[in-house]
């Protein structure tokens, strides 16, 4: 799954919202709840693997940054620590080199995930702005209709 697949799903979501009927005088949409949840579920299922990996890396980084919070492998780490004191140093060096190799990849995955998140956030903001603009236009039309009706009432009173 790549970003274009996610964009196609977002397009389907937007089309469904565009076809939805409006509730009179409110500007709100009547949508097929099952269809909307289905599209959201499909979006979540198809999120790029990089985003899932980045989320996992961020959680691991946060967990490691909290002092005194031991993960589920804390006991295993302690056992490995005592065993590693007896094992040769190259094992520790090899583990360090793997970590060093993974860090740039993790940074790249995080940056890609942040970019996707920025794009999604920007799209959501643009959509919300458009929806609010449409709601405002509907409200302005309703206010204008109310003012015309009120003017007609006042004119008929004076006759």
Tally of DSSP β-strands = 2
Mean pLDDT: 75
Structural class of the helix and strand makeup?
Answer: mainly alpha
Largest sheet data: 2 strands, antiparallel
**What separation lies between the terminal Cα atoms?**
71 Å
Descriptive labels:
159 residues; mainly alpha; two-stranded antiparallel sheet; elongated
What would you note in describing this structure?
This protein is an all-alpha fold. The chain has one domain. 81% of the residues lie in helices and 3% in strands. It has five helices and two strands, in the order H-E-E-H-H-H-H. It has a two-stranded antiparallel sheet. Strand 1 and strand 2 (29-30) form a beta hairpin. Helix 1 (3-19) runs antiparallel to helix 2 (33-45). The longest helix is centred in the C-terminal third of the chain and has 70 residues, at 89-158.
How would you sum up this structure in a few lines?
By secondary structure, this protein is mostly helical. The protein has one domain. 3% of the residues are buried.
